[in-house]
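Retro notes
What went well: the complex prediction finally ran end to end.
Inputs used:
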Amino acid sequence: TQLLEQSPQFLSIQEGENLTVYCNSSSVFSSLQWYRQEPGEGPVLLVTVVTGGEVKKLKRLTFQFGDARKDSSLHITAAQPGDTGLYLCAGAETGTASKLTFGTGTRLQVTL
Amino acid sequence: DSGVTQTPKHLITATGQRVTLRCSPRSGDLSVYWYQQSLDQGLQFLIQYYNGEERAKGNILERFSAQQFPDLHSELNLSSLELGDSALYFCASSPRGHPGYEQYFGPGTRLTVT
């Protein structure tokens, strides 16, 4: 079973601060996705990265896929209370009968 | 709103019982995925159907089964329920068959087994 470890597990910061969330595995993935989930709702896809070394930006969020496609990071600049939520990375195996393995999650709270 | 609907939203039942969770994918999406989310196990993949056929299996117990119907909606059947089956159950849909492409999650069904 492929494991995706996220760190930190919890993060409480003030508005305006920067933060980075890490997603690490010993396995290689064909692609990696980042989701945000709010209480009582389903995860919402933020981004998909496919190529090793790829960097994608979504407003104040920057996502990077590791060169070896085993790890990824999410950097948030100038965090806002609306960024509060559970951030999940998810790696997709190769092959037709593959599955999406979700990370352990990072719970972020941004306060005023 | 992802376009994926799940019913019921909440379900409370007793141990040993059987329940059926229903999922309607986004219009045109051929893949349906089922996931279980609990506090101690996180979000775990259960099973995937693509255009009516089982495509991939995850950590799905033998007491659980699923199917996808010709109109592409899917049902997850949970039987001989145990306290440990209490969790949030999500379905997700996707236009493609490989899980590496975008998945759109429904609002989930919260199952409580007493």
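What we learned: The radius of gyration of chain A is 14 Å.
What to try next: split runs per interface for comparison.
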